[in-house]
Amino acid sequence: MKETPPKILVLGIGNLLMGDEGVGVHFARAMAGEELPANVDVLEGGTGGFHLMEYFESYPLVLMVDATLDGRPAGEIRLVEPRFSSEFPKALSTHDIGLKDLLEGLQILGRMPRIFLFTVSIDELQPMQLTLSEPVANALPELIRRSKELLIRLQQDSSFTSTTSSNGTGIPSAD
């Protein structure tokens, strides 16, 4: 009997009204138009917070995208696999507190899913701007490509238990 792959949530986090900070929402909208496996759902998570708890509890695997003010060049993409809220990048912009509180609550309840977080570096928050800067907009196709590659790897190995990689994240490197 063939094993059913686990449900996977693709979650874009961000504030669409803050320019580059909304990259996760732009990403989710783009991914919703892609051909994805039947066990993959896409959600625009907005600015995060406790309203997302039911989604984190319903999916054993979450692929999340969010902007980060980390001092790296705008549009740089990084993949991390945080296991605790303290392992999330420190500068997850305007919704940092709500999302970290949610994740700490899930940890306390023992309901934390396995999370793969793509961060996209941004230079600044841009209030009342609906569009992405050129470097962040140019990163979207690469972000979609890398996300789809990760989804394929997760489909092929539902246990996804690798603990070593060339990039030091515990995630096999696609590069």
Report on the structure:
The protein is an alpha/beta fold and 175 residues long. It has a single domain (8-156), classed as Rossmann fold, CATH 3.40.50.1450. Helices cover 30% and strands 19% of the residues. It contains 4 helices and 5 strands; from the N terminus they run βαβαββαβα. The protein has helices spanning 23-32, 53-58, 96-109, 134-156; strands at 8-13, 40-46, 61-68, 77-80, 114-121. A 5-stranded mixed beta sheet has the order 2-1-3-5-4, with helices on one face. Strand 1 (8-13), helix 1 (23-32) and strand 2 form a beta-alpha-beta unit. Helix 1 packs across helix 4 (134-156). The termini are far apart. Mean pLDDT is 83; it is low at 161-175.
What average pLDDT do the residues reach? 83
Task: Determine the N-to-C terminus distance.
Answer: 33 Å
Q: Indicate the low-confidence ranges by residue numbers.
A: 161-175
Write out the CATH superfamily name: HybD-like
Adjacency order of strands in the biggest sheet: 2-1-3-5-4
Which CATH first-tier class would you pick? Alpha Beta
Count of strand segments: 5
How many DSSP H or I helices? 4
Structural class: alpha/beta
Radius of gyration based on Cα positions: 15 Å
- Determine the fraction of residues in helical runs and give it as a percent range: 25-40%
